[in-house]
Request: fold
Amino acid sequence: MAYLKRPGIKAFIHVFVESSQLEEVCREMGKLPEVIDVYEVTGEFDVIAVVAATNINEFRRSLRDKILKIPGVKSTVTSIVLHTHKRDGVELEE
Reply:
C-alpha cells in the first residue's frame, strides 16, 4: 500500500516494546508503507505510530500480520481517528 494522503482510516497505535529492541522496532515500523509517522515517546507507551489504511480490513491485516509480528513488540493499544478538528496548526471544517 502506498502512502495515502486522504486515508479511509487513520489510527494512532500505542506500542509497548521490549526495551532492548526499541531501535529495531522503530526501524522496522518505519519501513512499512502504511506507517506515516513513528515517535519514540515518554510515558506509558514506548512508541506511537500513525497508520493509514483504505478500510478497516486493510488496517486489521497491517496490525495483525505486520506490526504485531515485529520482534520486540509486546502489545499495542489502538485509537482510530473519528474526526480531525485541527491539523498542522490549521482548524478544519466538517
